[in-house]
Amino acid sequence: MKSIKNIGYVTECQICQNKNLKPILSLGHQPVVQEYLTKEGLHQPEATYPLNLVYCDKCGLTQIDYIVPPEIVFPPNYPYRTGLTNMLIRNFRALADMLEKQGYATPKSLIVDIGSNDGTLLQGFKDKGMKVVGVEPTGAADAARKNGIPTIKSFFDKETVAAILKKYGQAKIITATNVFAHINDTVSLANNIKNLLAQDGVFVSESQYLMDIFEKLEFDTVYHEHLRFYALRPLRRLFARVGLSIVDAERISAAGGSIRVYAMKGRRQMSARAKNLMDAEEKAGLYDVEAHKKFADSIILAKHDLVALLLRAKKQGARIAGLGSPARANTLLGFTKITSDILDYACEKSGSPKIGMFTPGTHIPVVDEDKLLKDQPEYVLVLSWHIGTELIKKTKEAGYKGKFIMPLPVVRIIK
Ligand SMILES: [Zn+2]
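That is the input. Now the predicted structure with zinc ion docked in place:
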């Protein structure tokens, strides 16, 4: 794989190149969250990388300050499969319906999905008779092709864009769901998107929203896949650099709270709801260094409260298991140092490729959720707390009788 620039310690803002970045929160050195270990792997050294949140007070971008090479963060055996998450499937179907209704796409329009994973999003457009192309560097590309979704197995770079333009022409819709903050070299990325987009085309991105991260203390979304935490002001600046304008934006519930942003070529008006969101961002302190520092202090307090509660339960002889083992939980576990002496295991739905493996850094065994129902430990720590309500309901229905510990934004026990 060819080398990609700007790897390692980030010394300047990823959008505006300001060199004076403000440190906000240090989460320690952490392994790559998807790097689950085999039993044999437990006997080998494990790579970790700095994980720090920093803030640029020139353009307002919150970002991490160390970029791990993408071939390590997204290895060919990358385990995440969109098709496994029902909520995402529903979200993607709704997105395809809506873009069709708004007139952005008609039959025969070309739709390109960046980071298309197993093709779940594109399936919705394909079912409507549109031309679709996915771009996906990991093994998920093979799953997509098997499902009949044309997919280029590569990173989204200049060469990939040239290949799509040559074979298919410009795209009417380009989507990037939960991936637009993942790709390095931000300005080139925005430029590549612009070059692929038709004059009347729309680029739709869905990214975790800094507002939600602030409101719900979702520091567990900070890991090496997420290089930037978007809000509208820095995004507008990034787009302006390459000749794109934000035309609309809305909050959506995906991934614990995301922002869906619509951008088009040329200078265009922003919708009223996007303007309102920008005002709300300002009021919430997203562009205020002091508010960022308060946010960091609250996270450290939340960590202490969670660990104290778990240790109290352990001292009373309770057994505690993890409910779910999402990638993001590995930041929570790594930062709080909750390891296998506190959590006996973490359980995943049958069929999850993580079953039989161990969490990176904290080495908690991942098991089939059947074990939870058989063992009935006194507590489960809801590691997928961002979908906690749905998950707790399902777990109760499946027959679990113990108590649920919600780790964030404030640790609490639910019976
Ligand atoms: Zn900046």
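The first strand starts at residue 8 and ends at 9.
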